[in-house]
Amino acid sequence: MVSTTQKDDATWYRCEECGLLFDSQTDAEMHEENCDSDDDTPSYLQ
After folding, report:
1. For residue 21, what pLDDT is reported?
2. 18 Cβ contact partners less than 8 Å away, ≥ 6 residues apart
3. Exposure pattern of 5-44 as b/e (b: 16+ CB <10 Å)?
4. pLDDT in tens, 1-46
5. CA-to-CA distance for 39 and 46, rounded, in angstroms?
6. What is the pLDDT of residue 35?
7. Of 15, 17, 45, 40, which is closest to residue 28 (Cα–Cα)?
8. Which segments constitute the DUF7128 domain (predicted)?
9. CA-to-CA distance for 22 and 26, rounded, in angstroms?
């Protein structure tokens, strides 16, 4: 499930699996469907 947060006077959408922020709810939902967060670090940082 995607949650919303306010930052820099804007609404951001956060992946509840890994915590990554998106400026588009659609992008956040698409990411979350494919999110592979077996640990706390997103796979693109490994």
Report:
1. 93
2. 35, 37, 40, 41, 42
3. eeeeeeebbbbebbebebeeeeebeebbeeeeeeeeebee
4. 899 999 889 999 999 989 999 999 999 999 999 887 665 555 555 4
5. 11
6. 87
7. 15
8. 1-46
9. 9
With tokens 């992946």, the residue in question is 15
Domain ranges of the chain: 2-37
Which two three-digit tokens encode residue 45? 């940082």
* pTM across the whole model: 0.69
- At which residue do the structure tokens 């400026």 appear? 23
